[in-house]
Each structure stands twice: as C-alpha cells, then as structure tokens.
Amino acid sequence: MKKTLLTMKFWTDGLENSTRIRNVKYTWKKLKKLNSYLYDNGVECIPKLYDFSPKKILDESIHIPFELGSYMKAAKTNAIIKSNQECDFMFMFDCDAFFIENDFFYLLDIIKSLENGDIVTFDLAKLEEMDSISVIENDEIKESFNWSYAYSGDKKNGPLCCGYKGGLGGVYICDLNLLKNLSGFNEKYIGWGGEDSEMIDRIYSSEKKYRHIPVNNIAPFHLSHISNWSSEKYSKRFLN
Fold it and tell me: H or E segment at 129?
C-alpha cells in the first residue's frame, strides 16, 4: 500500500496577533480530521506540521528554524521532502487552507486511485477577512460567504474552470519520487512565488512519466491573512 504524507508548513510573520498563526491553529485541526478519516478508510497516511519560525511556536510541530521574515518556500518544501523519504505521495497544504468534511469522501477516492507519477492540483476558494473570522469562530462555511477562486476568479465560475490546471502552490498532491528525481524545488526562488511554476514546468519538459489531474468538483477554502509586500525578503522573487 502506498503511503501518503499529509503535511502543512508555516512560519510566523513576527507581527503581534499574527493572522498566519491564528489560521494554522484552525487549519491544522482540520488536517488532522482529514487524516483520521483517510486512515479509518484504509489509507496509509501520516500528518506532519512543520514550523519554520526562528523559535518553535506550536507544540505539535516539527521545528526547522529559518530567519524571521525569510520566505524561501522552495528550501522549506525540500526540507520536508528530504525528511520523508519513506512516503510515496505528498499532500501539501498551505497553512491557511482546509477542506470541509463533506469533501473528505472525494479526497479519499482521489488518494485511493493514485498511481506512480501522479500530480493532483486544486483551486483555492479564498475567503475575505470577516468570513475567515466567522469560520474560525463557528467552524462553518456559509453559502452567503463571497469567496473567489485563486485561478477561476468569481465564485460562480467554480474551481479550475475554463482550462485552468492549477499548480504546485497552495494545495496539491504529488508523487514524491517525481520531485526527488528532478532534484526538488529550485532554491534560487527565495521570495513569494515562482518556484511552483518552475517545478511543474520541469516535470512537463522532462522525460519522467507523469499524469496531471486537475480537480474541478471540490476546492479547499483559504483563510485571509496579512501579506508583507513591503519586505524585500517577501517580494524579491529570485536569487541572482
């Protein structure tokens, strides 16, 4: 039986009352619920939370310290890959993202059907701040919430419509050997974005066997958070 790592990574932005830390305290609970559901239904899986803050914040996390304010998502993701050589697939979650329990059945079907070389990508239903607060306080998604999709845009479009495929960014499943055989994510990407597109482009252009499966019937929800675009560590995308 193939083993799937369900993993989430986070780090503090150093701000008082950090929205990132607020969010991960909620989404990590949701990820553990998903893991329990999958395990109870015959999936060999394990949940791991990685904290890349300078000092450990959450007790349940695996702490790998990085400098405060550094983004370096490629390096952090590679550290997770290196630490989980025994797993076949990685189900990666942005620390602000979660699935509702009504969608667990669909995820079970996806994971049970995984084959070597598979990449499964999702859209993100991005919630506004007041709706995010409501979700955390009430643990409920309301139809009245006015979310938009990261790729497809307006809520009425549905996830990954109009030919959008998604990528190796917010939430995805990927064959770990596929990533390892291509030397992982490019660590020259040090700021926000770019490393995910570059990685999937290398998969497309390689001779490795792969199958890209975009999911357009469900999508994880994404809680609002503050982004520090004024910081060079966040906004500078590539190390020359």
Answer: helix 129-138
Tell me the per-residue pLDDT of 192-237, one tens digit each, with 9 for 90 and over.
889 999 999 999 999 999 999 999 999 999 999 987 656 666 567 6
Q: Return the pLDDT at 232.
A: 67
> What is the C-alpha separation between 183 and 100, in angstroms, rounded?
33
Rounded Cα distance between 15 and 1, Å, is 43
Distance separating alpha carbons of residues 73 and 17, to the nearest angstrom: 23
pLDDT digits (tens, 9 = 90+) for 20-47: 999 999 999 999 999 999 999 999 999 9
Angle at 62 between CA 110 and CA 138, to 5 degrees: 60
Instruction: Count Cβ atoms below 10 Å from residue 143 Cβ, excluding itself.
Output: 5
Quote the tokens at residue 227: 């982004």
Look at the chain and count its residues: 240
Please report, for the chain, the start and end positions of each structural domain, with discontinuous segments joined by +: 3-235
63 contact partners, CB below 8 Å, separation of at least 6: 50, 51, 53, 55, 56
Q: Largest Cα–Cα distance of the chain, in whole Å?
A: 48
The answer as to CATH 3.90.1150.180 being correct for domain 3-235 is: no
Residue 110, classified by CB atoms within 10 Å of its CB into exposed (0-12), middle (13-18) or buried (19+), is: middle
